[in-house]
């Protein structure tokens, strides 16, 4: 009887508990729905922000990789350019050295030749003076002349122990006794305009000068042997205000491009048969 009475008491209590739990659970579900309604938009925004952050991070990393790759490409490109310039300089130097060897083997000059490198040029006076790497220790003396190929470059005006100064024929102070291949005498002097050109002034009025004619040293000098090419006539201007024909010469070199040259002494002579043959060819052309 006691057990039955206890069961009767417990059953209502259990029923109340079950009902209470069910009601509470239902309230929890409703509360969860309410919370979800409020939280989902926030979660969605947080999710979108997180995705954007990840995308931005990926973009940043990607941008850094692109920048790094671009820098590497720039470096490689610069190295290739430097190597190309080096190869070009080596090629140019080899060509110049080969030309010097040809000059030595086929030189029109008889006597001792000294090969020199141009060690310095005054940027402000490119057409006036250069410095070479030979000096008194190498037997260089004042008034020795310098040539490039078969063209006159200038003369030595100052000698130091291991270098010398060369006055170029394009220097405004340079005056050289010259003549045409047809033996018309005159003087060649550097341009006052310092434009790397020269002027030829014939000693007589001459109407047979033509553009392209070669002007050579006359030999009427204590410094320059006869027959060295000075330059070619580039322009003949007959303006009345000159009082004479203004004959412009272009030398056989560009001062800015001079790297090597040959030094020869006054005792050297020019191999005249070569020049004579040129004169004979010109006379033959005139007869034809």
Explain this structure.
- The protein is α+β, with helices and mostly antiparallel strands and 288 residues long.
- The protein has a domain at 113-264: Rod shape-determining protein MreC, domain 1 (Thrombin, subunit H, Beta Barrel).
- It has two helices and 14 strands; from the N terminus they run αββββββββββββββα.
- It has helices at residues 2-105, 272-287; strands spanning 109-110, 113-121, 129-132, 145-148, 151-159, 164-168, 175-180, 185-190, 198-202, 214-217, 229-237, 246-251, 260-264, 269-270.
- The strands form three sheets. A six-stranded antiparallel β-barrel has the order 2-3-6-5-4-13.
- The termini are far apart.
- The model is unreliable at 272-283 (pLDDT under 50).
Provide a brief overview of the structure.
This protein is an alpha+beta fold. The chain has helices at residues 2-105, 272-287, and strands at 109-110, 113-121, 129-132, 145-148, 151-159, 164-168, 175-180, 185-190, 198-202, 214-217, 229-237, 246-251, 260-264, 269-270.
Beginning-to-end CA distance, first to last residue: 161 Å
What is the top-level CATH class of one domain? Mainly Beta
Helix fraction bin: 40-55%
Over the alpha carbons, how many angstroms does the gyration radius reach? 47 Å
What structural class results from the helix and strand content?
alpha+beta
State the helix count: 2
Query: Within the largest sheet, what's the order of strands?
Result: 2-3-6-5-4-13
Organism: Fusobacterium vincentii 4_1_13
GO cellular component, one term: plasma membrane
Function: Involved in formation and maintenance of cell shape.
Protein name: Cell shape-determining protein MreC
């Amino acid at each position: 009887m006691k057990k039955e009475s206890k069961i009767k008491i417990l059953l209502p209590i259990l029923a109340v508990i079950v009902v209470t739990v069910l009601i509470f659970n239902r309230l929890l579900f409703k509360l969860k729905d309410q919370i979800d309604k409020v939280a989902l938009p926030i979660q969605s925004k947080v999710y979108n922000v997180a995705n954007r952050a990840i995308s931005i991070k990926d973009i940043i990393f990607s941008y850094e990789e692109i920048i790094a790759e671009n820098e590497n490409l720039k470096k490689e490109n610069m190295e290739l350019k430097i190597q190309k310039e080096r190869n070009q300089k080596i090629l140019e130097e080899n060509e110049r050295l080969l030309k010097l060897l040809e000059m030595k083997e086929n030189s029109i000059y008889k006597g001792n030749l000294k090969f020199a490198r141009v060690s310095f040029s005054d940027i402000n006076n490119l057409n006036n003076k250069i410095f070479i790497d030979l000096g008194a220790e190498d037997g260089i003396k004042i008034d020795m002349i310098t040539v490039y190929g078969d063209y006159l470059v200038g003369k030595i005006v100052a000698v130091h122990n291991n270098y010398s100064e060369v006055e170029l024929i394009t220097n405004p102070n340079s005056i050289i006794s010259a003549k045409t291949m047809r033996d018309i005498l005159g003087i060649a002097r550097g341009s006052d305009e310092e434009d790397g050109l020269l002027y030829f002034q014939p000693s007589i009025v001459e109407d047979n000068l033509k553009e392209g004619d070669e002007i050579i040293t006359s030999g009427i000098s204590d410094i320059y042997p006869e027959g060295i090419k000075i330059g070619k006539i580039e322009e003949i201007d007959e303006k009345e205000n000159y009082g004479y024909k203004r004959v412009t010469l272009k030398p056989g070199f560009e001062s800015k491009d001079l790297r090597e040259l040959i030094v020869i002494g006054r005792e050297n002579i020019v191999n005249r048969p070569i020049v004579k043959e040129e004169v004979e060819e010109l006379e033959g052309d005139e007869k034809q």
